[in-house]
Structures are given as C-alpha cells and as structure tokens.
Design goal:
10 strands; binds 5'-O-[(R)-(carboxyoxy)(hydroxy)phosphoryl]adenosine; binds zinc ion; 357 residues; globular
Length: 357
C-alpha cells in the first residue's frame, strides 16, 4: 500500500511517500521537508500569512519531487493523506486542498489526518511498535502525555496548563537574544553551560496529576536575564543549561506520574515513546531513558528528522487509517483546533492560546 502524505500545518512544507507492507510494517520511499525558517527569522516567530503563501509556492514542486524520488506515479497510490489540522488554518487549507485535488483527479481515497495523531503513530513506522503505549508529545503547540490504545483511540493523561514546551524553549531563546527557531539554539547553548548556576523552579514537581506548567519557569528565566543584563555568552549558556535542567526534572517527574496513571487504567505500556519537535533534544532523550528504565519499559524516540514535522508521519498515519478502511470524503474540513482525545477536558488554569491548536 503506497500513500502520499502532505504536511503544511505550521512552517514546514513537506511531502513524502510511504509504503505499508502486508505485515503492518512501514518503509519511507521519499521524505522531503522544506523549512520556512528563513522567511520567518526576521520576525522571531512564524507569521501565519507568510507561511500560507510559502506553502502555496512550494507544495506542488515538493509533491512532484516526493513522487519522483519514490519512483512512483499517482496511479500507483492507494491513497493521499494530508494534515487537516490542528494548525495555522491558511497552511492547513493549502495542504488539504492539494490532497483533495490529487484524490479527485486520480480517483484515489483521501485521508484527512490529525497532525497530532501522525506524531503519535510515528514509532509504529520506525519500529513496528504494538499498542498500547505511552506517548510524550512535546512540540511548539502541545505538551501532552497520551495513552495510545489503537489507531484513533487516544486518552490524554496530562497536558500543559499554560505554555507548550517547545513554545517555552522558543520564548527563552528570544529573551536571551538567540536566533529563531529557539529550541535547538537553547540546546546548543546549554551544552557549554553550568546547569546548577541558577536555582530555577521545577514546575508541578510531586503533583498527583500528570500536567505540566512552563510559564512560571519562563518568567524565572526572564527575571534572571534582567538581573544579569548585559549578559556575557557564558551567562547565556549557564541560563540555558539551568532552564533545560529544570525542564528535564519536571518532565521526568510528570512522566513518571503518567506511567503510573497508564498502569492503573491500561496495564503496562509496551513502550514509552516521545514525539514532536522537543523530542529532538538529546538531553530530553536522556531524561526519558531514565523514566523508562525505572518503569521497566522500553524507550522509543524516532530519529530527530521524524520527530520534527515531516510528510512521512502524515503518509504513515494515512496508511494506518486506510488499512482499517478509515477514509474521508472530499468535503473533509480543515481544522485550526483538533484535540487528539476528543473527550479530554481543559485542566484548571488553562490559559494557553497555542495549546489548543
Ligand atoms: O513538532 P514540531 O516540529 O512542530 C510543531 O508541531 O510545533 O515542533 C517544533 C518545536 C519548536 O518549538 C522548536 O523550538 C522545538 O520543537 N524544538 C526543540 C528542539 N528542536 C525543535 N526544542 C528543544 N530542543 C530541540 N533540540
Ligand atoms: Zn508537529
């Protein structure tokens, strides 16, 4: 089964062709990602209108290249999948409309994929993981602990009550004068820094729920930065290292509660999985390894290029759904907001503008 996947929900334009074999395993035949970093860098963040226009300009060429690299034609496709949300609506419309046009012209099924579901199912593409498993999803717009029970079956066990983790990395980078996108820059700066120099808060430590909070930590970084102003490069490195250490400790604590909640409701997870852009962070990977070892489960983190946004994850989620007959009609709507767990309720103190997307 060959599926073309299209991703345009944020600032990456991406297209990929993935093959799903009869035994349920997957193979990436092509995976092309074009990041719009340059277009947005001058503004210090993603500008939705610029993103949508760049998707329009780039997408057709990327789809053509993905098909060519995969050595296949539209007639050979079993389906075409696009991320139909959640995300910046202009970009989502571009990707979904393109997928609909291909589906209509080539009379092939359309799969309107939830971008978060695509992150959640990626470890089944990279290492044929069986259900159920515990997912730590941390990206620019989301920070969640999710029980992945099956395709389309997700139970949210924890979420952020304010900022998303990637968003906190990006904001800390911005306040320290590091370039956009901030996550990888903070990680790089932290490598040469002293994580013990600043006593930053460890948000939510010891709480019985599995929720996260990052805005207080971000404010603490801002206060230290203001106190030090003007900052030397070593100050920036030390502050990044201290921030990252606080994130790691809080994440490890929140995840160990998540593992316990998973056990109580679903028995032992097959693995602890991390996905989303923040999972590309090597230090976070180390912290997760410790949590998994304590929980006597395996840790699985897809390679960094499959943690950040890409087309292969959309194609794979499309293939998983297609294999179960879960296809969509050509009037499938683009969605700015789309919860992975439709039954999840907003936690108290939910104040984030990005977290619902
Ligand atoms: O999943 P993703 O590519 O896009 C969204 O769906 O949001 O995640 C992007 C986010 C950004 O906030 C970025 O700063 C963060 O992931 N990120 C990182 C790292 N690489 C990307 N955060 C910390 N360390 C990294 N190495
Ligand atoms: Zn993402």
């Amino acid at each position: 089964m060959l599926v073309l996947g299209i991703e345009t929900t944020c600032d990456e334009t991406a297209a990929a062709v993935v093959e799903r074999l009869p035994d349920g395993s997957g193979k990436i035949l092509s995976n092309i990602v074009r990041s719009q970093t340059e277009e947005h860098a001058a503004f210090g963040g993603v500008v939705p209108e610029i993103a949508a226009r760049a998707h329009v300009e780039m997408l057709d060429g990327l789809v053509e290249r993905a098909m060519k690299d995969a050595g296949t034609g539209f007639a050979q496709l079993s389906g075409v999948a696009a991320a139909a949300g959640p995300g910046l609506i202009g970009g989502v419309i571009v990707g979904l409309t393109t997928a609909k046009a291909i589906a209509m012209v080539h009379d092939t099924p359309l799969i309107a994929v939830n971008h978060l579901e695509a992150h959640a199912l990626t470890p089944r593409l990279t290492c044929a993981l069986a259900f159920p498993y515990l997912l730590f999803l941390a990206s620019g717009g989301h920070t969640q602990i999710v029980a992945v029970i099956g395709v389309g079956q997700y139970v949210r066990l924890g979420t952020t009550v304010d900022d998303a983790m990637g968003e906190a990395f990006d904001k800390v980078a911005k306040m320290l004068g590091l370039p956009y996108p901030g996550g990888p820059e903070v990680e790089r700066a932290a490598r040469g820094g002293d994580p013990a120099r600043f006593a930053l808060p460890r948000p939510m430590l010891g709480r019985p729920d599995a929720n996260f909070s990052l805005s207080g930590l971000k404010t603490a970084v801002r206060n230290e930065a203001a106190r030090l102003d003007p900052m030397e490069p070593q100050d920036i490195s030390d502050l990044c290292a201290s921030f990252q250490a606080a994130v790691l400790e809080s994440t490890a604590d929140r995840l160990s509660v998540g593992v316990r909640l998973f056990h109580e409701r679903f028995g032992p997870p097959r693995a602890l999985v991390a996905a989303g852009g923040v999972a590309a962070n090597q230090a976070i990977r180390g912290a997760l390894q410790d949590v998994a070892a304590k929980a006597q489960t395996t840790m699985i983190i897809p390679p960094p290029a499959l943690c950040t946004d890409n087309g292969a994850m959309i194609a794979w989620a499309g293939a998983e759904r297609l294999a179960l007959g879960m296809i969509d009609s050509l009037d499938a709507a683009p969605r700015a907001r789309w919860l992975l767990d439709e039954n999840a309720k907003a936690p108290a103190k939910f104040a984030n503008t990005r977290a619902g997307f």
